[in-house]
Design goal:
7 strands; Rossmann fold; about 280 residues; single chain; alpha/beta; about 45% helix; seven-stranded parallel sheet
Length: about 280
């Protein structure tokens, strides 16, 4: 079977693995794209985390699961810094000559996020700066290259919180804005052969979500996991980073060559009653 992104140069922003019991979205995406034939540049704010993901992919290559260990590399970059975002694109072109796919996986929550009557302005600004402006910065940096190439695919990781919620104003607004950013980019770049889509995730069993909530609330990880599982209609079980990865792979691959501006729910049915 032909590998689904064979020969593609892919940048996964937020490829580092947050410590925890399960795999995160970014690491799962980077691993799957490599196994499907792509050359992957793993980017994370924390250099060691990006390197760990790349090393895991290189180990897969040695085991015969990916094409070659040379097909993966890593770098540190902070998407709240426009110069770092430009450097990501420069490094991809320097190392590989082009950039075919950008996956924007960085996102934060918590940290003082609250309803509208309680949230502090600095918290609102920080979350919007990372979750929305960070994606815009990387997209702004990559678009000239993709326009010059007359093609490319962008996949943004959003959340069902874009449509529902009442406790985390900044996170909810940021993800709603990511969806509109995605459709804007799709509309304004279709004539250049550039596609942009987003994945709107429901409850996922990732370290940032489950372990993060457990640490923030002082509860056991198992209790948080069980509570979240019970709220998912499909089999009463959360999705995993691998579910996010397979959705991203489809949207980035040529199988989705006629799909752009799509906001794809990957949520086990949680959003069915939300519109």
């Amino acid at each position: 079977m032909t590998k689904r992104v064979a020969g593609k140069i892919v940048v996964v922003v937020g490829a580092g693995q947050t410590p925890g019991e399960t795999i995160g979205n970014g690491a799962a995406i980077a691993q799957l794209f490599a196994r499907e034939g792509a050359t992957v540049l793993c980017v994370d704010r924390i250099a060691e985390r990006a390197r760990q993901t790349a090393d895991g992919i290189a180990a897969d290559a040695i085991a015969g699961e990916t094409a070659a260990a040379s097909a993966v590399s890593s770098m540190a970059a902070d998407i709240t810094n426009a110069a770092d975002c430009a450097r990501i694109v420069e490094e991809a072109r320097r190392r590989h000559g082009r950039l075919d796919i950008l996956v924007n996986n960085v996102g934060i929550g918590g940290g003082g996020d609250a309803p509208a009557h309680r949230i502090e302005e600095e918290v609102f600004d920080r979350i919007l700066d990372v979750n929305l402006k960070g994606m815009w910065r990387t997209i702004k940096a990559v678009l000239p290259v993709m326009r010059e190439q007359e093609g490319g695919a962008i996949v943004n990781i959003s959340s069902l919180a874009a449509m529902s919620g009442a406790t985390q104003l900044a996170y909810e607004v940021s993800k709603a804005a990511v969806n509109r950013l995605t459709t804007h980019v799709a509309q304004s770049n279709a004539r250049y052969g550039i596609r942009a889509n987003a994945i709107m995730m429901g409850f996922m069993d990732t370290p940032m979500a489950v372990s993060g909530i457990a640490a923030a609330t002082g509860r056991a990880t198992a209790a948080v996991r069980a509570e979240r599982d019970a709220m998912v209609p499909l089999r009463r079980r959360m999705g995993t980073g691998h579910d996010t990865a397979y959705a991203a792979l489809f949207l980035a691959s040529d199988e989705a060559r006629f799909i752009t501006g799509e906001i794809l729910r990957v949520d086990g049915g949680m959003g069915l009653g939300l519109g």
